[in-house]
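Thread: sanity check for a docking pose with zinc ion

Original post by kr_44:
Hi all, I'm comparing my docking run against an independent structure prediction. Below are the sequence and the ligand SMILES. Could someone generate the full complex and paste the structure tokens? I mainly care about where the ligand ends up relative to the chain.
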Amino acid sequence: MGKRVWWVFVLAVLLAGCAVNPVTGDRDLVLMSEQQEIALGASQHSAVLQQYPIYDDPALQAYVDGIGQAIVAQSHRSNLPFTFSVVDSADINAFALPGGYIYITRGIMAYLNSEAELAGVLGHEVGHVTARHGVRQQSAQGVTGVLGAVLAASTDGAYNDVISAGSQALVSGYGRSHELEADRLGAEYLANTGRNPERMIDVVRVLKDQELFDLELAALEGREPRRYHALFATHPDNDKRLQEVIRAANRFVAGATDDGRDRYLDMIDGMVFGESEAQGIIRNNAFYHLPMDLTVRAADGWTIQNSPTRLLFVNADQTGVMQLTARALGDATSARAVQQELVGAPVSGREVRVNGMRGYESRITLPKTPWNQPGPALVTTLIREDQAFTFLAASQSDAQLGRLIPEVRRMVGSLNRLDAAGRAQARARRLSLQRVTGNQSIQSLADTDALGQLAVQRLRLLNGLYPDREPAARQLIKVVR
Ligand SMILES: [Zn+2]
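Reply from moderator J.T.:
Ran it for you. Here is the predicted complex with zinc ion included:
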């Protein structure tokens, strides 16, 4: 084969790799066509929904989709078929996948105070898609299609345990220049849909206030603070670059604008706040799951983290990790048989009995532990009717696991059905609207039972009154019940 053919081949590759950016009109080096981009997003959409299930409120979904589609219609890629999903997570987060898949958590929606702020969040995410930030990032990394990498590249919130439980790695979106561009586009889309682009600054303020609040909370709990939208090191009120790009959108505003505050509050009245019944609730170091009729308590010094596929227990010095998973019994006839299926090898240990459930406990060696090396584990499977619950407790050495076994057995022994008190604990909290009467202060409205530590500050956060403002007379505010 001669040189000439080789050159033709290189030229073809370069042409395919150069796409016109829908926002800037410039040519980007994007190694992906629009069809590939849509296919990529579609393939990752179902994986996202496993981690972030859809929030079960069709009216709210339709409302968010309606606002999102109106933004899309005025955007740089109105031809792209966008989907908007409200996901059942208390995380304060919104994110986008290439191809037009936009997600917003009910967690962040609780803190927004108007339709315009919601449109600001959606517009920002639409901006990431129209400017092809995710695609550019994935092209730069090579198209791996690994969900973790995608979420890492496309999230705006603070994931601390969703992608890899136990790790404290925080993710801070796309980098300052892409975030600023998404804010600029979000503001432009707000203006295009007849809203005040300044609401984009309010959205950034909502995130910044979360960060400031977490500083307060972290000091109280003696831990490192989390960071939301970490790229905004300065407060949005003092952020000149942010204000510049937002104000530039003012030229698009046609006339008077309605923020849609009452409409928005009405839509989120009754929305689940914090953990949901569907995913189970952690209170006072115990886990309560109403649909599964199940409770389990962490031993002293252990904390519980919940994810859609498992519960994770971690001890204070992180020398022990235990996960609890549930599955249908299927064809298996005993706890030992379930365990052998899970482990993929014969196990040998002892029969156990826990709160009327038959079970089996054995020691195994895991080829890979959370410490990225082989290590010992205690595995206990309990059978209740057609369900099998399996605890897998791992440590770094036999000696360490030996020390942890009494605590592990106590936690296994706490697995039980819900009693009346447990059923009450398993109920989710919900947002409720209340009109401030007389000279009611935020102090008198903050329910410490429902909001916990720093209840007054939490109520302020919910209502855009952080850090020290009081509600106006007759103001409609969100409370938690
Ligand atoms: Zn962003």
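Residues 273 and 422 are 19 Å apart (CA to CA). Hope that helps with the comparison, let us know if your pose agrees.
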